[in-house]
Write a structure and sequence with these properties.
heterodimer; A: alpha/beta; 2-enoyl-CoA Hydratase, Chain A, domain 1; seven-stranded mixed sheet; five-stranded antiparallel sheet; B: mainly beta; Lipocalin; ten-stranded antiparallel β-barrel; two-stranded parallel sheet; 2 helices; 64% strand
């Protein structure tokens, strides 16, 4: 037995070596293989299949027969993009060397409710101050107007300090995030921290823990803290957050956090949604796919994938817009003036 | 974790009596073998946190190794300390996306050796290792990086032949290393590093065993002794694979190794050697 021990150990190590090098199945780089790989990625990793009531097997049955041997790349792209549109998610894109698919109905089916030129020309008089992604001015002598069209560039503490210092005598603030398509969620915290005076629960985040449609982690609460008032400027006076259907992703998250603050009123149209943090993968032909993988809930444990309803619904009147009037901005200014009386 | 602590205690318990019984410092010289190596080769990577596809490309590494016979029983026990920095770039099968990878590893081995005669030596023992690294696929949105980290205990061995190639003294060595247990890091299935940064750190650290953490390193070297300088040529095959949280990683690299080695002796006054002191090398 003694002399057999090294042999047994060697055999065991060899067996471990054979079995432990975990394999990863890779689909073939064919039209069928690429379609199946894409379908599988969404099946195993997309986070809203159950929430949206999507029968992903039925989607496969609908689109798979359209992928026949010999179809060209444009045809394959068209079928794959149509399949991904079934997810009704602006965070889902299929990126190829010649096109990027993009689900548009979260905003294209609704009035735009925003005209940047209208604000620039008739309210800002092509003026205002612009710095670090923010454009700001004082309207009607006493109301601060802040436009923030994207969270992509982040938000600088220096810019926020200067802006809030220059606007500090105003009675209220319109924070306009219409047409803000999102960007860095870290910037949400940077900005919200200026509008709170104590720690708040900003929401909950979850992630998929496995390939099953209901494999999720426990929701994890995350918190925002206020800035140090000795070092930075804050704003605790009334605020109107203006939103439209093109307020998406990080901007949607910003609206969902801000609207629960006591001094904040959300006005305008419902936001565009997009509360799933995107993740990326790819298929054998090298096309990359982006999709939602981590649901973010608001502080009331509600998903905002299909948007956040405003406290006060206001639309842009196209006829008045022709006369130089932004009815949504006017409603916000009037609301804040009434509130400050 | 408890298992890890028990193994460390057992290892120390095995060594301590030997230390107490033996002191050969005055009559034995234990030269330090130091090797500096450069590696160049290919890598084949897959990390399903980033992509389900296999990437292939080049990799290069710098290595340092230090070996010495152990003080308490230099004829039979040797130690090896090694460090390695590896970096490389690999492409997906369509060659339209690049993945950069970086890896830093440290290892300390202690081996019992048995001289078989005719220049052959076999050694085997334990190893303690640590590894950190990352794979980066920058075109990904919120999952552009997959971090790697592990602390492991395992087994290692060495088969050495000291002989001549014609008139040139030569040392051939084969050294496999296989971690058996420890802990390693793996993100959760679709968890973003943003969520980890927010503070959700559950399911990130895993106990390792060869079924979920397999990392077999094979190093074959030929040390060609040109007088005081030794040229090291070799080949390394590293196979590493993990499976945790429904994620699989799989790295295979082949490298050609070139380097220089040398043995040096401490000349500290306190440890003055007698002229007839016995020189016990760790490998030569």
């Amino acid at each position: 037995m003694k002399c057999k021990l090294p042999l047994i150990i060697t055999a065991l190590v060899a067996a471990l070596a054979m079995t432990s090098c975990h394999s990863v199945d890779e689909a073939p780089d064919s039209p069928e293989g690429n379609f199946d790989a894409l379908w599988n990625i969404i099946d195993r990793q997309y986070c809203f299949l159950d929430h949206k009531g999507i029968d992903w097997d039925a989607v496969y049955a609908k689109y798979r027969p359209q992928v026949k041997p010999g179809i060209n790349v444009l045809q394959l792209y068209t079928v794959c993009a149509a399949m991904l549109d079934e997810l009704q998610d602006g965070h889902v894109n299929l990126t190829t060397p010649f096109a990027t698919s993009y689900y548009k109905k979260w905003w294209s089916d609704y009035p735009q409710n925003y005209n940047e030129r209208l604000v620039d020309e008739y309210y800002l008089k092509f003026g205002g101050l612009t710095r670090g992604g923010f454009t700001y001015a004082i309207l009607n002598d006493s109301i601060a107007y802040v436009r923030y069209p994207s969270f992509a560039a982040g938000a600088s503490d220096t810019t926020l300090d200067w802006m809030l210092m220059l606007l500090r005598d105003c009675k209220g603030m319109v924070f306009d995030i219409r047409d803000n398509g999102g960007g860095s969620i870290a910037a949400v915290e940077t900005i919200v921290s200026r509008f709170i005076d104590r720690r708040i629960c900003a929401g909950y985040i979850q992630h998929k823990t496995g390939p099953g449609h209901s494999d999720f982690s426990e929701p994890y609460a995350y918190y925002f803290d206020p800035v140090d008032p000795e070092k930075h400027f804050s704003w605790l006076k009334p605020v109107v957050v203006l939103t439209n259907r093109s307020t998406f992703s990080a901007a949607n998250n910003f609206a969902s956090v801000m609207r629960l603050l006591p001094q904040v009123t959300q006005m305008g149209d419902r936001t565009g949604g997009g509360c799933g943090m995107p993740f990326s993968s790819e298929i054998p032909c090298g096309w990359s796919v982006r999709f939602s993988s981590s649901p973010v809930y608001d502080a009331e444990m509600q998903l905002t994938e299909f948007g956040v309803d405003p406290h006060i619904h206001v639309d842009l009147d196209p006829e008045k817009a022709l006369q130089g009037i932004d009815t949504m901005l006017d409603a916000a200014l009037t609301f804040l003036e009434e509130k400050s009386k | 974790m408890k298992r890890l602590i028990h193994i460390v205690i057992a290892l120390l318990a095995a060594v301590c009596p030997a230390v107490a019984q033996t002191d050969t410092a005055a009559t034995v010289v234990r030269p330090v073998l130091a090797a500096y190596t450069l590696e160049v080769g290919s890598s084949h990577l897959c990390d399903t946190y980033l992509t389900p596809l296999h990437y292939s490309g080049w990799q290069t590494a710098l290595g340092y190794e230090r070996m010495q016979a152990m003080r308490f029983d230099p004829e039979r026990w040797i130690m090896r300390l090694g460090g390695r920095v590896q970096a490389g770039r690999a492409l997906n099968p369509a060659h339209n996306a690049a993945m950069w990878h970086f890896d830093f590893s440290l290892g300390w081995d202690m081996m019992f050796r048995h001289r078989l005669g005719n220049g052959f030596t076999l050694a085997g023992g334990g190893t303690v290792g640590a590894r950190v690294g990352a794979l980066s696929l920058m075109r990904n949105s919120n999952n552009p990086v997959s971090a790697r980290a592990a602390v492991t205990i395992g087994i290692t061995g060495m088969a050495v032949w000291n002989g001549n190639l014609g008139r040139l003294p030569l040392t051939l060595a084969y050294r496999p290393t296989l971690p058996l247990t420890g802990v390693f890091f793996a993100p959760d299935y679709n968890e973003l590093y943003y969520e980890i940064w927010l503070g959700n750190r559950s399911r990130l650290v895993h106990g390792a065993w060869p079924g979920n953490y397999f990392a077999l390193d094979n190093l074959l070297t030929a040390d060609l002794h040109f007088g005081a300088t030794t040229l090291r040529l070799g080949y390394r095959l590293n196979v590493a694979s993990t499976k945790a949280n429904n994620l699989v990683t799989r790295d295979i690299s082949h490298s050609l190794v070139i380097g220089i080695t040398g043995e040096w002796i401490s000349l500290r006054a306190r440890s003055a050697r007698t002229p007839d002191a016995k020189v016990i090398s760790a490998m030569y």
